[in-house]
Request: fold
Amino acid sequence: GNRSHISLETKEILAESGMFHLISISGLHIGFLALMIHVFCRTMGFELYKTALIVICLLVLYALFTGARPPVMRATLVISCLFYALVWNRQTQTYNVLAFSVLILLLFNPSVVFDTGAQLSYLAIFGLIEGSKQFHQWRRYKKKDKLKELIRNSSPIHQLRYYISMKFLQSSVLMAGIFFVNFPLIESKFHLISVSGFLTNLLLMPVAGLCICAGYLILLLVLFFPFLASYPAEIMNDFLTFFLQQIRMLTEYSHGHIYSPGYPEWWVILFYIILLTTILSQFQNRFLKKAFPILLLIWSCFGLTLIYQEESNPGLKGTFLSVGHGTSVLLELPNGKTVLYDAGSINSGRRASSVIESVLWKHGHSRIDAVIISHADIDHCNAIPYLMDRIPIGSIVTTPTFLDFKQSIVKLICTKAHQLKIPLQLVTGKDQLRIDKDVSIQIIHPSNTVYESDNENSVVLLIEYHGKRILLPGDIEGNALTDLINKSEGNFDIFMTPHHGSLSANDPETIAWASPLIAVSSGANERVNERLKMRYGQKTQIYSTKKHGAITFSISPAGLVKINPNN
Reply:
């Protein structure tokens, strides 16, 4: 069950294809292991009770060896109960067996009720059971065509074709049952809708099953006959590489998966209450029998409207995100649109992207209307390629000096933007972004002068709303900062300190010009907060993302400024 050596890219591909459960030890793996042990023991001539005892003991040892995670323990308990019933010739009620496994798990670990893996595991079994019921009911009540039945029984080929078609149909129904019951929880927790997941699992699950069984056999060879394991392991490695290539090909389909803000928790809870009531309650009243499925359908449609409902703000809201040593500022405009100023971190662009995504989804946004790149340093833009893969972006705004294709990050961003048909808008000083009629967003730097360094050519953004002024200066420094001070009006309500709060860019001249009420430093230096307090003085409130975490500000239509550090 150790996934630490699997690359993050591979994990994302498996998640987007709906196949992540293959690398997470779960009921699927326990089921195949129990089947292999059972077949081996019976082939060797063991009696049924001995076979059952061996299966149960080995499953318990395997579950403990892999960490005794709730999905694994659920499968172990359920299979153990089924083998016990088989030996003693007892009938089993599936839901009673599941309830018994829940009680045992809660007895040893009550917090398991909050474990997402355990919830998905039980929901999957629930979907399998109900899907199987629906399929067998359909076959029972289906009108039989005697002519087709006669043709089917006329030759082994027709019988085989019929058998394969029925198995494929049954697998489709079972997969649909699992997909339907798990979909709301997965979308709510992981913000991912794997549209291709149904088809991927349906087509590749037999192959995945063979991979799991082969993996167990190779593991046995490694333990007992290591000199025989190398060749099968190489074949297995080639096969898995091919398997991942097919999954990667499916995930590259643009509509195969969608990232979204997610269902609200209250909607998910009510969905499962309605679902359980619909399936488990034996209504005698015909009206109730029909009313609850219709209610479930209406509730599902209502949930889809909640995912993509863009809410307008009663004012301007912004968040200085905590991305380590880097910069990312999310602006949420009164008309519901979003602007992202920079998106990068010196540590990891992927991590910075995850932070930005989580804040967007938490605030109910499914897209970014404009991404403004101040300059080409990676701690300001290396998260953008990852964001492009997950979040729809309206346009990318930057300056002509950004387009230095010798820098790999610039080439990557422009290539991806071209592939995804995201327009690239080039701006210079005094240009305005017309995104919200109530908010003035103006580029005040760079002008026509081209400076030597990327930092000096940073996009400086001035936001004005109901008399309040916010300045986002990027990494501007040196001669460019001097020119900006000489040409532009200062006095800001909220001021992001230039160059992550470095003292050289926050000299007395800059501080006197900015005269901010609130100054925010975005970086990873622990001591910068205290240094800036000494420089800016008592009139300015100093915040840093290193000390205070994400820092959110809001400006009401009346011009009232509120600041909320989220540490």
